[in-house]
Amino acid sequence: MKKKTLVRTLTGIAVAAVAIGGIVIHANKNNKNxxxxxxxxxxxxxxxxxxxxxxxxxVTNNESISDVYNISDTEESVSDIEKESSDNSIESEVxxxxxTDKLSAEKEYIENSFxxxxxxxxxxxxxxxxxxxxxxxxxxxxxRYVHILHxxxxxxxxxxxxxxxxxxxxxxxxIFRELYNQSYxxxxxxxxxxxxxxxxxxxxDNNSSAFNFRFISYTTTISKHGLGLAIDINTxxxxxxxxxxxxxxxxxxxxxxxVDRDKEFEHKIxxxxxxxxxxxxxxxxxxxxxxxxxxxxHFEVSDAVSEAYVNGLK
Length: 314
Description:
By secondary structure, the protein is α+β, with helices and mostly antiparallel strands. The chain has 8 helices and 9 strands.
């Protein structure tokens, strides 16, 4: 019994020793790992120091930090951008001034192009024997020259000339100024004298005109055109139409395709047209509203106005 007990005791001591040794070995291994990690950390510290030292050395060896990081080049780039921006700003200001001057000159030109005057001598010389015939009973002093601007069918600005009675001169000027402002297209506005005072020639060329002294056919009554109290607009597209002895009379003769007013086509004057609205707002009557005939191009003062004027001539 004593022998077995001794063996067990020795065995237990051996096991304990082995266990203790494992702990020691494990501890030593841990200590080694810690030492290795410390060495790595030290090496890292050395590397960081070396890098810092190297950077400082590079900065020291160069002339300046500006050279190292190309700061001077950046400053030059910024300077170039600022200069370019300044140049662009100056150029923009110059362009704005030029545009302002151009708009101002254009506005002045437009304002100066709409005016009324007594008939200039050179214009009256052109009218004599044509629109102002030898038997004209309307005093020369009662007529006015009206200069206007208008937009042609291509949208270009054109100068126009009209001769009208002094009674309607201001209205005509205001109407044509508004037509121009609204870019209302009128192909031509020439004195009928440029067509030798031939109404058919003027109308067939789509010319808009006013004064042309004449009597109403087969009467001694002066027509309202003869008094300078009527005007025709875009005549080709807005013809005079009347049935006489069963035959359709169309003036101008080349306006047949524009007789049917139910058709849609450009430059047609009707109740929705700006030209119609402006003239009627100024007290004119439209020939398109007549019953015995239709004169779609024609605007005139009322009979009361024309009769009062004629009576004043007597």
